[in-house]
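[step 3/7] inverse_fold.run input=structure_tokens len=154
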């Protein structure tokens, strides 16, 4: 009988400095106006900031950048590498952030998302987020509105 390796499991853990290139590549393939890699390097130094990565068989395939502000978790970005989308990775990362919130003293998860970003809005709504407001022309580079979405944890 030929032994086969088990399916590689997704591991979610804090980003390390040597993940910077992989996170930067995902960022550049995911956003209209990508943040510079230095932004993520700075995030690693901020006490209130967290960047978690999802590894599939060792490779960084997605990340979530969020801030812990008093009783609120504010998600700045979640992105999955284009060649790994629609396989549950983004949802796994989002569920990880929500579980952290439920396990701590957090009451709310908040985020802003481009009004035209249907995949992301679908992801957030599937996880229970509600649309609670609009920030008109929030994205200065093209004047697009942001939807404000929240998930109440308790
Ligand atoms: C939004 C994003 C993170 C989703 O990541 P993903 O790993 O593909 O998401 P998942 O496979 O876990 O999808 C979970 C659910 O989200 C929704 N969803 C995700 N992509 C979708 C799409 N293209 N169209 C419609 N619904 C979508 C679905 O409900 C999906 O569940 P399903 O596959 O069972 O139907 C990804 O598309 C991405 O990186 N986009 C660019 C960056 C971005 O816009 N980030 C969000 C703003 S911060």
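[step 3/7] decode complete -> sequence:
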């Amino acid at each position: 009988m030929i032994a086969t390796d088990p399916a590689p499991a997704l591991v979610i853990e804090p980003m390390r400095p040597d993940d910077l290139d992989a996170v930067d590549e995902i960022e550049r393939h995911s956003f209209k106006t990508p943040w510079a890699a230095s932004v993520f390097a700075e995030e690693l130094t901020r006490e209130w900031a967290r960047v978690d990565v999802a590894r599939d068989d060792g490779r960084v395939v997605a990340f979530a950048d969020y801030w812990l502000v008093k009783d609120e978790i504010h998600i700045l970005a979640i992105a999955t590498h284009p060649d790994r989308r629609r396989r549950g990775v983004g949802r796994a990362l989002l569920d990880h952030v929500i579980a952290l919130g439920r396990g701590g003293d957090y009451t709310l998860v908040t985020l802003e998302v481009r009004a035209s970003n249907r995949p992301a809005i679908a992801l957030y709504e599937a996880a229970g987020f509600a649309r609670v407001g609009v920030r008109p022309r929030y994205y200065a580079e093209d004047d697009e509105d942001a939807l404000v979405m929240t998930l109440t944890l308790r």
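[step 4/7] annotate
The pocket of coenzyme A is lined by residues 30-31, 77-80, 85-91, 113, 117-120, 122-123, 126 (CB under 6 Å).
The chain has a mean pLDDT of 95.
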